[in-house]
Amino acid sequence: MNERGHAPSITDTGPRVKKPRDPRLDFFRGLCLVTIYGNHLPGTVYEHLTSRNFGLSDAAEGFVFMSGCAVALAFSSGSMRQMNEGLSARSSDLRPIAVCVSSRPSSG
Predict the structure, then answer these.
(1) Three-state DSSP class for 3?
(2) pTM of the entire structure?
(3) What is the mean pLDDT of residues 42-69?
C-alpha cells in the first residue's frame, strides 16, 4: 500500500534517475548535421570533402543511427558498454550478408 492507502499500480515506478548524456554522440551528430549542410551547398569546396564522395552513404544515415543510439541510452536501463557489445554482435551477424549483397555481379 502506498501513502494514500491504494495498492501500487504498474505505472508507479518511483523517482526517475536522470542519466548523463554522452557528449561523443552529441558531437558526432552535430558533425553529421554540418556535413549534411555542406552536401546541400552546390559549387563549394566543402561539397567535395564530405563522406558522400567516398562511400555508398552520406551523413544522414549516420545521424539517424546515432540518434537511435541516443534514444536507446536515454530510455533503456543499459549502458554504453552493453550497447556496444550488442552492436558488435549484430554487425558480425550482418557482415556476411553485406558482402554477398555488395559483391553481386552487375547485370548488363
Answers:
(1) coil
(2) 0.54
(3) 80
